[in-house]
TrEMBL record:
The lineage of its organism: Eukaryota, Metazoa, Chordata, Craniata, Vertebrata. It comes from Leptonychotes weddellii. Residues 23-41 have a biased composition (Acidic residues). It is found in: Cytoplasm. The N-terminal half of the protein mediates interaction with RAB11A and functions as guanine nucleotide exchange factor. Four long alpha-helices (interrupted by a central kink) assemble into coiled coils, giving rise to a 'V' shape. GO terms for cellular component: cytoplasm. Residues 1-12, 42-51 have a biased composition (Basic and acidic residues). The gene is LOC102746604. This is SH3 domain-binding protein 5. Functions as guanine nucleotide exchange factor (GEF) for RAB11A. Interacts with GDP-bound and nucleotide-free forms of RAB11A.
């Protein structure tokens, strides 16, 4: 085999292209730095964000309460139908 060809095959490239994982890690690091920079929020905006978060919590709590009430109501309706005289249920 030609000596120059042997040398070119045995030599590794000086720099390999970055893998997708390396690029992803760099992107995540950039996002983390961006989040750190975003932590400094105008106090007026921070207050409004806290109000929005509290309102969201209230809405979620009330939705859960409503779901429980609806489930209980449906259960009550089913029980009343089952207890109706003449109701025949076959299992």
């Amino acid at each position: 085999m030609d000596a120059a060809l042997k040398r070119s095959r045995s030599e590794e490239p000086a720099e390999l292209p970055p893998s997708a994982r390396d690029l992803e890690e760099e992107e995540e690091e950039g996002m983390e730095q961006g989040l750190e920079e975003e932590e400094e929020v105008d106090p007026r905006i921070q207050g409004e964000l806290e109000k929005l978060n509290q309102s969201t919590d209230d809405i979620n709590r009330r939705e859960t309460e409503l779901e429980v009430l609806e489930a209980g109501s449906l259960f009550g309706e089913v029980v009343s139908v089952l207890l109706t005289p003449g109701c025949l249920i076959l299992f």
